[in-house]
Fold this protein.
Amino acid sequence: MALNREISAKNQANEILTALNVALSEAVELEVSTYIDFDLDRRESLSVSRFHTRINLFDGTVDHEIDLKLIDNPAYSELQQWHIEQVRQRENSLIKNITSLEQMRRILLKHKRN
């Protein structure tokens, strides 16, 4: 009976470890998009423009895309700053989550060895 519980606990630990490994491997990329469908200068609808940022923590790349009509347009500078702040907040949150997942993975690996 005790052996069955031990085997079951090890199987559950293996499943959790597998899930943590998958979560860690998928949690390295972050994408944030801010869409604009209103022209602040002319106060009219326009085709959708966006600020888009993609960060890959694994390979350290950061890609920013800004539609041409938004570049150097003072009407959108505050919105661009807001977008950058959203990226920073999400990046910090992602790093905290990855750190927590890695800590759980290490605990499980330590218990698995014992």
